[in-house]
Design a protein that fits this description.
The protein has 280 residues and is an alpha/beta fold. It is 26% helix and 21% strand. The strands form three sheets. Strands 1, 2, 3, 4, 5, 6, 8, 11 and 12 form a nine-stranded mixed beta sheet that branches. Strands 7-13 form a two-stranded antiparallel ribbon.
Length: 280
Amino acid sequence: MTNHRGTTICAIAKNEAPYLAEWVLYHKLIGFENIHIFNNNSNDNTAEVLKDLESLGLASCMDWDPPPTEHIQRSAYTFGLGMLREQSEWICFLDIDEFMVIPGLDCIQKFIAQIPEIVALGINWKIFGTSFHERREPGLVIERFTKASLKAHRGNLTVKTLVKTTAISKPNLHNHTFAPGVVYESIDRLPIPPDSMHSQNVNHDMIRIHHYFTKSREEWDAKVARGRATKPDGHKDKFRKEDHFRMHNKNDEDDAYLMKFAPTIRRDIEKHQLFSCLTL
């Protein structure tokens, strides 16, 4: 890990091998200095890809296999926060299907400089659908999926959090437990209740999280078959239902903003011979 006070993304991955290189390279392009990924018992090429990314200095990684009594994602994030707190001023816990987007600036440091009074920021999702793709095809996620939900879609009220590491005491999946006196708010400076994962309004103008929840229908079916990493075996919600697909498969408007990053990401994947969705 680098030893300076910058910006960090922490994530946990299970069988995400084709998507990891693109996701890491993109977030490095917008300025995140540290990216740490936990490998949750993957049985695909995830370990190999993470090893390659680590050897290139693009990410740090470790295996994560907590006892069955512990929540896999929360326990990883708690451990990650303790490990990363002294190395970073800001941290964001993201999933591998989530891309932070900063329109116009394309730089996390420049964005942070514009919000000097905010220490805990809820960032709205922008949910992307299948773009009418039935099959998984070669290509980057940001190339293949450019159809998104309208701003008013209720799922876009969901937020992920960018927060100063001194302001968070215990991480969760969306909202967190914050230090006393910390105000959790949206980019509109509207408060978000401590027990909520939703903002009052949707604002995508300055910053947003592109959430490629479904990808193609084939990739969705594979996700369902894996089961939810956040649920133990035998849990009634271990496997996602068809209504989850319908709720997230929104293809109502075009958003190809991230396409401009594709040539650089492709070049670096090919240069370093990284396993990715380009090679499927």
